[in-house]
Design goal:
With 152 residues, the chain is mainly alpha-helical. It is 66% helix and 3% strand. It is built from 5 helices and 2 strands; from the N terminus they run αααββαα. It has a two-stranded antiparallel sheet with strand order 1-2.
């Protein structure tokens, strides 16, 4: 499926992230490790799929869902040309959600610093992962903002 979404790079990144979290959780469960880290990976995978669905809903549908209104189908968002059947507006919504998530994680990490202003090794690794995610997100924004090539 991912191979068919080559132009929808934001969606590919989010799906790959969900898969990574599911695989990590699955490996932990096989080892009978069901603690907070395993739960966090499961929650992260669920969150990724929820983000995908939310980005595809039009603003009216998202409001109805949050107010307890209709369930049912995913619906296509509107706005802009679609890439691999995914509206550009949906990718932009998803980019915004991902940026907000990185911002929140960065703030939490900054607050978790020790009194001496230094990070633990684990916090430093988390910061490096956030930096990498921010770089990939910046690349996606740049790619999406480039004008589409005109067919010959």
């Amino acid at each position: 499926m991912i191979g068919k979404l080559t132009a929808a790079k934001v969606f590919v990144m989010v799906i790959e992230s969900a898969v990574e979290h599911m695989e990590t959780a699955g490996e932990a469960i096989q080892k009978r490790e069901t603690g907070p880290q395993t739960e966090a990976n499961i929650d992260a995978a669920i969150s990724r799929f929820a983000q995908l669905l939310d980005s595809l809903r039009s603003d009216g549908q998202a409001g109805q869902e949050q107010q307890g209104g209709g369930g049912g189908g995913g619906g296509g968002g509107s706005g802009g040309p679609s890439q691999d059947g995914i509206p550009s507006a949906a990718q932009v919504k998803l980019l915004i959600t991902l940026q907000q998530e990185i911002n929140r994680a960065t703030e939490q990490l900054a607050k978790a610093r020790g009194d001496d202003g230094k990070w633990t090794d684990e916090q430093e690794q988390a910061f490096e992962r956030l930096s990498e995610r921010q770089g990939r997100l910046a690349d996606l924004v740049r790619d999406l903002s480039e004008p589409a090539e005109e067919p010959d």
